[in-house]
Design goal:
single chain, 644 residues, alpha/beta, TIM Barrel, Lyase, Ornithine Decarboxylase, Chain A, domain 1, Methane Monooxygenase Hydroxylase, Chain G, domain 1, 4 domains, ten-stranded mixed beta sheet, 23 helices, 21 strands, 40% helix
Length: 644
Amino acid sequence: MNRLDTPAESFAQGWSPAQSADLYGINAWGDGHYGVGANGDLLVRANGTPDSASVSVMDIVRGMAARGLDMPVVLRIENLLDNSIKGLNEAFAAAIAEEGYNNHYRGVFPIKVNQQCHVIEEIAAFGRRYHHGFEVGSKAELVVALSQLQDHDSLIICNGFKDAEFVELGLYARQIGVDCFFVLETPNELPIVLERSQALGVEPLLGVRIKSAVTVDGHWKEDHSDRSIFGLGTTALLGVVDQLRQAGMLHCLQLMHCHLGSQIPNIRNIRSGVLEACRFYGGLIEEGAPMGYLDLGGGLAVDYEGARTNSTHSMNYRLQEYCVSVVATIRESLDQMEVPHPVIVTESGRATVADSSMLLFNVLDVRDHRPGELPAQLPAECHELLEPLFAVTGLVTLENCQECYNDALYYRDEIRELFRHGQASLRDRALAENIALAVLDQIQGLLKQAERVPPELENLAELLSDIYYGNFSLFQSLPDIWAIDQVFPVMPIHRLDERPEREAIVADITCDRDGKIDSFASVDGPRKTLPLHPLKSGEEYYLGVFLVGAYQETLGDLHNLFGDTNVVSVRINEDGSFHFVREFHGDSIADVLTYVEYNPAIIQEQLRRIAEDAVNAGKISVATRQQMLTAFRASLNGYTYFEQ
């Protein structure tokens, strides 16, 4: 039986797992890695094909619970990370063979995209077969790269500002046989590199970063152009070439770097950028630099929406088209200039790790915006304005929706104003709000049949949506939602054989109005609400946020002192079983207090003194004091998130 086959009882309920897969766009953004089981559980597949080994995410959740790993949890599927590295390298290899390109590809992963040790270790270990290296932007990242990279056919690309110590570390890497390139971001870096190279007697491998004038779509379009904060303008570039020539070191210049921007959704931008990069590359060879490596930076997008368009959160191309476009454009451009084909380098970070991680959390509560039951008739003592408002409930039709909407809000707001002036009671206000809500609910139900929705009523579903309170911190685990309006796929990980009856937004547990998800990935573009299931008494309801492997952990902050979540890495076996490769317990309260310069031992002693003073003042007993101190100690060692 295919895992997407649906039992007859699900069809009898009017909903199937396949419908959930369509509703949440799993087949679009999931890139073959996800499916829905016949029992309604979300499945994750080992290698992205329907016949590959797959496991239920709920089975993994149950395994977490048995190991004492509470929600929220970042779940990593190591197979998906391996698939991304394999896919990128093999797609470039296929494009190189197809285009008759006379050189090879070398990928490097930008450590800043996900600096977690277990991620970097897996990239180094699995990427070794493809000579996949690292891009670093600081001394700390260079130390990480040197400690993890065991394959000397891989590259280390050093971007960012470099002091003498940074340069020395890279030169030591050269001495032990690692091809470590210093990419010059400003002319002022060159004297430091030359001085340290001369002092250590080690010739450097040099690159230059150029500023592209190509306009790109998406969030990071300002990574290019004359106002980019990175790279050398044309005049500065030639100045570097002249300095190297004067120093007799022009032969060290072997790499050109051109970064168009992150998450480029439009393949035409990429082709234009590569074309311009080739012109610079050819120009450097004309100046006498040997060259040999063309680094095109990042840009390979992730289709968060699954829409296959050139919108900010999508991409209008697939991996193979990207690789063929890059390889073909370089070949055609350089062949015209009779320039040998360089090693192609890309720094794909987002596309490498985004798919491998998901944030899982349980729903703690729901604010239901459905109207309460209306009385058969109004109370005798209610305010007289409630009568015309109550009458609207029996007048709503598809033809007069706008009029009824106006009347409901008018009378509701009048009652609110009277309440503010003491001329209507609290019960009057509550009844007015519930009646108005009932009218809006009626209107919303009828609008599903309307050919045209009045503009004022277009956001009615959003206004009537429920609020599902999730056990997570947006600012810690999904900071890009708050910072740059990033959208991610969000969906339940179970009950997918049931019809989701409610429309909702998702709020976190921080004390902040911005701590919410109210824009959700969809193949039709971001939508303002998410279809969810009603909670069941005594049962947990779990949601997942997907494609979160890039940047989210690195950028997270301690808003309300919510710390790092639990983290689990799982590997799916060929027989459909799985095993826990790594598990990391999230921050305790004591941990996060130390991050903001508190000493947990001192805090514990201060609490002891406060409790002892309360005993001496006769406010509590010694036994109560002991209970309090035990509770304080347990809290300091406990998880920062909601615990059952």
